[in-house]
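Figure 6 in text form: structure in, sequence out.
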């Protein structure tokens, strides 16, 4: 992809407790990028609960809105990289897992095409409880499996594993491979 003349979106996705937020922040610091925070985390903190089936569409739309806002703010910035701490696709997968509702997958898959690349975090970090939105290793494994199915048809997906500096190094290498030196 090489020389970037417009901002690019990088998706950082994975099941719960795979280090998405930490990695997004680390990469933004290294590459001078912007982080689009995870909408679900903010929603759970604001409402004091996890969302219902009827609230999944709004969650997905909020995540997309946050990405669009970041794109608009960096529109004139040369080589700006926007690191999305999760994606609409994860909301659709959660809806599939928790509510047996696959209706959001088509729209989420279509939206996912706009990312320059996807960093798919593997569930190889120790699972840690974190408020309302983490249900355990069994859910992590199930969501990881559903993500595998959804990401199989997406271009530019890089599996990121390891911990600490090894994880960061793998993500950095994937970015440089896909986007070229910055």
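Output sequence:
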């Amino acid at each position: 992809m090489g020389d970037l003349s417009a901002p690019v979106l990088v998706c950082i996705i994975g099941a719960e407790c795979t280090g998405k937020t930490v990695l997004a922040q680390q990469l933004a610091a290294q590459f001078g990028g912007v982080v689009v925070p995870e909408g679900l985390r903010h929603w759970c903190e604001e409402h004091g609960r996890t969302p219902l089936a009827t609230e999944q569409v709004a969650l997905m739309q909020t995540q997309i809105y946050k990405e669009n806002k970041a794109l608009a703010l960096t529109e004139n910035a040369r080589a700006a990289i926007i690191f999305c701490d999760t994606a609409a696709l994860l909301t659709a997968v959660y809806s599939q897992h928790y509510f047996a509702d696959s209706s959001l997958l088509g729209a989420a898959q279509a939206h996912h095409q706009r990312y320059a690349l996807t960093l798919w975090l593997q569930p190889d970090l120790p699972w840690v409880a974190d408020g309302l939105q983490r249900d355990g290793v069994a859910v992590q494994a199930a969501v990881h499996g559903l993500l595998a199915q959804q990401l199989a048809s997406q271009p530019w997906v890089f599996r990121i594993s390891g911990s600490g500096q090894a994880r960061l190094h793998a993500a950095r290498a994937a970015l440089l491979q896909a986007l070229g030196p910055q």
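Caption detail: The domain at 8-179 is CATH 3.40.50.300 (Rossmann fold).
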